[in-house]
Task: structure prediction
Amino acid sequence: MIRWGCALFVLALVGCAAEQQPRLTFEKSGTPKAQQQKDQRACLQTSIAADDAVVSNVLKLDRDAYIRCMQTRGYTVRSQS
Result:
């Protein structure tokens, strides 16, 4: 179930990229890549909500909540055009 949710999230990100939102990168000095991926997954899980209006397979990412979550974990957010 978690893998299915992650796959849907990736599809949602592709859709968001089509809306011309700047790409974000997160940096934290001395953090191994595996730890960064773990932190990103945890923040994604807390930032994704199912659409309350209809029952569907559509997931929405609260981008601001995701960014705040990563920042509280000590990451610096960089925007790339």
